[in-house]
Amino acid sequence: MRVGVLSFQGDFEEHGEVLRELGVEPVAVKLPEQLQQVDALVLPGGESTHFARILKRYGFADVLRRWDKPLLGTCAGLIVLSREVVDDDPGLTLGRLNVKVRRNAYGRQKDSFEAILRVGFNGESKETTGVFIRAPRIVEVGEGVEVLARTEEGEVVGVLQGRVIGLTFHPELSGETFFHRLLLRL
Ligand code: GLN
Fold first, then answer.
1. Which residue among 29, 84, 93, 166 is least enclosed by CB atoms within 10 Å?
2. 34 to 5, 7, 57, 157, 184: CA distances (angstroms)
3. 172 is catalytic
């Protein structure tokens, strides 16, 4: 099994480490042609405006709107996978997750923080630490979307729709393997 990590910006190394821990070789994806060689794809964090530009320029956008293999988007990755961004449009969304998100939604004094999360899927559940970096908020969860992770206050921070996972935090930075394992199972 080969899992691609979009590698224009963002945490290729950190996602790669989690994938290697699960016995999978990560592939740095820089061109849409490479999508034919991978079985799943990670869209890492970074700056969603930058991602949006590159996804358009290199012709990823149309392919990823139709791609039926599993996807995992963290932070900026979630933003581009969403249906709609309120306020600060990054310039493109792929509409793969029926959620509305707000970028940089925690304000300046909380630019980066960690929070205890409860995560679960299919009867398996656990606690983990979520690392949030200039994170977006999921402000509306639409039809067809399952919740994978919540904060202790009950806020939704991780979702699944079909074979697409979206997280507002960075599991690769706390070494959490739950979501990458799920990606491999999907
Ligand atoms: N703040 C970034 C954006 O809005 C996302 C930050 C991240 O991916 N860690 O695009």
1. 84
2. 11, 12, 16, 30, 18
3. yes
pLDDT tens figures, 89-143? 999 999 999 999 999 999 877 889 999 999 999 999 999 999 999 999 999 999 9
Residues with CB under 6 A from ligand 1: 45-48, 75-76, 79, 103-104, 133-134, 136
Q: Alpha-carbon distance 156 to 9, whole Å?
A: 26
For residues 100 and 51, give the distance between their C-alpha atoms in angstroms, rounded to a whole number: 18
**For a substitution probing ligand 1, which of 133, 167, 168 has the most ligand atoms within 8 Å of its CB?**
133
Cα separation, 77 vs 166, in Å, equals 7
Which domains are assigned to the chain? Answer: 3-185 (3.40.50.880)
Q: What is the pTM of this model?
A: 0.96
